Amino acid sequence: MGYIGETIDSIKSIQIRQLLTQAISLGMIVTSALIIWKALMCVTGSESPVVVVLSGSMEPGFKRGDILFLHMSKDPIRAGEIVVFNVDGRDIPIVHRVIKVHERENTGEVDVLTKGDNNYGDDRLLYAEGQQWLHRHHIMGRAVGFLPYVGWVTIIMTEKPIIKYILIGALGLLVITSKD
Amino acid sequence: MHSFGYRANSLLTFAVTILAFMCAIVSFSFSNQTPSAQIQILNINWFQKQPHGNDEVSLTLNITADLQSLFTWNTKQVFAFVAAEYKTSKNSLNQVSLWDAIIPEKEHAKFWIQISNKYRFIDQGYNLRRKDFNLTLHWHVMPKTGKMFADKIVMSGYSLPDAYR
């Protein structure tokens, strides 16, 4: 009886230690990903340093599923720059090109009009009710570099959440069943 | 340690890292770039003050450009546009894009085109009479992967007439 109790205890303790080790390594992976993300935010000066292109309004330059690297600096906004901006009331950022700039003499405030390369008209239809121009605080960053196709992973995971669950389930299973 | 899965995993990680490194390095290759351009204003079609108080002018432009030297193996397209830049008493800088085009291939990068302005040239106010302005040809090189870069040629000496017509 005592012998059985001993083996049961030893089995339990090994499992607990293994489980804890695996949980900690998983936590370390998640935390280091978070650290890298926050560091990118600091370096680029933008709230979202990487965005995925969701629409075809900038084709053929940026296709749906491409990833854009953003950078925000205090430099003034000039015509031709590709900027990412948020419209009041909408949560999805838009990536379009600046076509008109009117910068005030004294304050340095700027009125900006944007347009998607592949769109016929400018973005006034997309702005909020009665808004004719974008201002500096709407703009989250300038696009400085890009990687094609890599953003499809994010698009698929957002539009078909079932794939997200399958992926996380499979990853979880892999972590639990792996011996090292 | 020597299982197929482990080896495939480390090989894949190494391959992806090398690919990412190559994509990043590509941004630092610069070639000899000698673009050239000329813009002529052929005609001022009309020049009026709109009902809401802002000046508007319509122009016919003759644009000649050779941007072939900007194309490399990594270039997906070159976005070119012509902007009018001028200064008013209220605004230290105004940039109004008048025309743009997407150039997908090197063969199309040497062109001559005569058009009226694609986008409306409207001022914030009524300051355009007798206004001197620059016409700038900007280009934005969009790569197949990596860093984008842009530059411009400034041509000055253009001006608008004294009176509405």
From TrEMBL, chain A:
Classification via Pfam families: Peptidase_S24
Keywords: Hydrolase, Membrane, Protease, Signal-anchor, Transmembrane, Transmembrane helix
Peptidase S24/S26A/S26B/S26C domain boundaries: 36-106
A single GO BP: signal peptide processing
The EC number(s) this enzyme carries: 3.4.21.89
Alphabetized InterPro entries for the sequence: LexA/Signal_pep-like_sf, Peptidase_S24_S26A/B/C, Peptidase_S26, Peptidase_S26B
Class of the enzyme per the UniProt entry, highest EC level: hydrolase
Gene Ontology molecular functions: serine-type endopeptidase activity; signal peptidase activity
Catalysed reactions listed for this entry: Cleavage of hydrophobic, N-terminal signal or leader sequences from secreted and periplasmic proteins
Membrane topology: Single-pass type II membrane protein
Compartments where located: Endoplasmic reticulum membrane
An example Gene Ontology CC term for this record: signal peptidase complex
Family: Belongs to the peptidase S26B family.
General function of this protein: Catalytic component of the signal peptidase complex (SPC) which catalyzes the cleavage of N-terminal signal sequences from nascent proteins as they are translocated into the lumen of the endoplasmic reticulum. Specifically cleaves N-terminal signal peptides that contain a hydrophobic alpha-helix (h-region) shorter than 18-20 amino acids.
Database matches in PANTHER family: SIGNAL PEPTIDASE COMPLEX CATALYTIC SUBUNIT SEC11 (PTHR10806)
Protein name, UniProt field: Signal peptidase complex catalytic subunit SEC11
Organism: Brassica carinata
From TrEMBL, chain B:
Keyword match Membrane: yes
A Pfam family hit: SPC22
Principal cellular location given in the protein's record: endoplasmic reticulum
Domain of life: Eukaryota
Subcellular location: Endoplasmic reticulum membrane
Transmembrane among keywords: yes
PANTHER family assigned to the protein according to its UniProt record, in alphabetical order: MICROSOMAL SIGNAL PEPTIDASE 23 KD SUBUNIT SPC22/23, SIGNAL PEPTIDASE COMPLEX SUBUNIT 3
Similarity section: Belongs to the SPCS3 family.
Biological role: Essential component of the signal peptidase complex (SPC) which catalyzes the cleavage of N-terminal signal sequences from nascent proteins as they are translocated into the lumen of the endoplasmic reticulum. Essential for the SPC catalytic activity, possibly by stabilizing and positioning the active center of the complex close to the lumenal surface.
Protein known as: Signal peptidase complex subunit 3
Organism field: Brassica carinata (Ethiopian mustard)
